[in-house]
Write a structure and sequence with these properties.
36% helix, globular, five-stranded antiparallel beta sheet, five-stranded parallel beta sheet, Polyamine Oxidase, Chain A, domain 2, alpha+beta, FAD/NAD(P)-binding domain, EC 1.-.-.-, oxidoreductase, 3 domains, protoporphyrinogen ix oxidase, domain 3, FAD/NAD-bd_sf
Length: 448
């Protein structure tokens, strides 16, 4: 008798959602020898960080970046066959707002790399640079914690960060990290990000720009890893309901995906790693967990717009990643320097703003005008593509209640970047949530 084989027959985990949270859970379970089946509604894996095609060009549904401090995400990418140095363009921390401000971390041990970078920054006075360095030292002494939550703007005011420091340094970091305007953004959550990136080792603050699309970067590799370990990946397969039956859970599959009828629908555990909208839909019909659906539905969301502009191949930016001040576009990414897609520029607009009132065509024209005015690029793009994720992330406001990963149903767990944790809505937050759910199951059933 093989006890591991007997346990494998007894336990089978369903994971609803093939984004970074769901695939992180599936890889972790598969590594431990727990059978899994992943259900993904879309035909493409990746969720809100996925590859898309336009004009025979590989894009992402949004221009995402990673930080060197995303240890869980980077470790999983390598585990499923990735190569971090090949898959990413790694840049030492640098924040460059065109003709306004520039900070670049020095190649020194932490925290000297950041302190030297702050003191050597251009665009603000020396006294203000010194103030920023003192602010970081104060945060480090307090271990990046607060007794109670306040907005990022309030925190900056308390630490005497003047208007230019806020405008050129802290607000861009806040928007990029939390996707939430600083006057409502949670300082507690921002400090968690600063703790692990700017407050960590020198490499933790590195910026990693992916050379390949986000589906290929992890979810597609993870799918092959999971299948190699005996798991199943079902794309274009929508789950309509979660129905508990004692110690087991039945999944009701949508009739349009009847081609998956031969696959199992009864599971020992379910990890709901769907988007907040789909998680709400799945949980609200089951009385024992309907309260969690209400909690998720109460969360507000923020958009991210990515405007892809295909210029002639000779066009390039001064650097791979360039910020703009007082423009609709916040950051520009030169895909020629990052991934070899010459002439392709991605403009990113995070969080709410006046751009939401424009049509996609109007918005693209405004970004083209700004690029001309800021960088004197007069060429007309060959094509343009605006991708608007209107519910890209939860609004990371002060004192926000976020549901934990366990539910009143012991064998139903919740994964996603919006669940309780230190991080805002980031890939690292999503991955950590998936790992946490998987480890909860493996510890319960005795797999290691």
């Amino acid at each position: 008798m093989n006890p591991d084989h007997d346990r494998q027959k007894k336990y089978h985990v369903a994971i609803i959602g093939g984004g970074y949270a769901g695939m992180a859970a599936a890889v972790t379970l598969s590594t431990a020898g727990v059978p899994v089946t992943v259900f993904e509604t879309a035909r493409t894996l990746g969720g809100r960080a996925r590859g898309v095609w336009h004009k025979n060009t590989q894009l992402d549904n949004g221009q995402h970046i990673l930080l060197g401090s995303y240890h869980h995400t980077l470790q999983l990418i390598e585990q499923v066959g990735g190569n971090i140095e090949q898959d990413f363009l790694r840049l030492p921390l640098q924040l460059k707002l065109h003709n306004r401000f520039e900070l670049k971390a020095w190649r020194l041990p932490a925290p000297l790399h950041l302190l030297a970078g702050l003191l050597g920054a251009t665009g603000v006075s020396f006294n203000h640079r010194l103030s920023a360095a003192k602010f970081m030292l104060s945060l480090k002494r307090s271990k990046f914690t607060l007794d109670y939550d306040v907005s990022v703007s309030e925190l900056l005011h308390f630490h005497n960060q003047n208007i230019n420091l806020a405008r050129f340094l802290w607000e861009p970091i806040c928007i990029a990290a939390l996707n939430t305007p600083s006057h409502i953004a949670s300082a507690k959550v921002l400090l968690h990000v600063l703790r692990d990136s700017l407050g960590g080792s020198r490499s933790d603050s590195d910026i990693l720009l992916p050379r390949i699309n986000f589906s290929a970067l992890f979810p597609e590799r993870a799918a092959e890893y999971i299948k190699h370990h005996g798991g199943k990946i079902l794309t274009a397969c929508k789950v309509d309901a979660i129905v508990p039956h004692g110690n087991e859970i039945e999944l009701i599959i949508h009739s349009s995906t009847a081609n998956h009828s031969s696959h199992p629908r009864i599971f020992s555990h379910v990890i709901c790693a769907a988007s907040p909208v789909n998680a709400t839909r799945l949980l609200k019909s089951e009385p024992q967990i309907a309260c969690i659906a209400e909690q998720i539905a109460a969360m507000q969301h923020q958009p991210i717009y990515t405007i892809y502009l295909q210029y002639p191949e000779k066009i390039h930016l001064p650097c791979p990643m360039l910020g703009l001040d007082s423009c609709i576009a916040q950051w520009l990414f030169d895909q020629g320097q990052i991934s070899g897609q010459n002439g392709l520029i991605a403009a990113v607009i995070s969080a709410q703003g006046k751009h939401q009132k424009l049509t996609h065509d109007q918005l693209a024209k405004e970004i083209v005008r700004e690029i001309y005015e800021q960088l004197n690029i007069a060429e007309v793009p060959i094509w343009q593509k605006v991708i608007a994720e209107k519910r890209a992330t939860f609004s990371c406001v002060t004192n926000l209640f976020r549901p934990i990963h366990t539910t009143p149903l012991a064998n139903v767990l919740l994964a996603g970047d919006y669940t309780a944790g230190d991080y805002p809505a980031t890939l690292e937050g999503a991955v950590i949530s998936g790992i946490r759910c998987a480890e909860k199951i493996t510890s319960e059933i005795g797999f290691s």
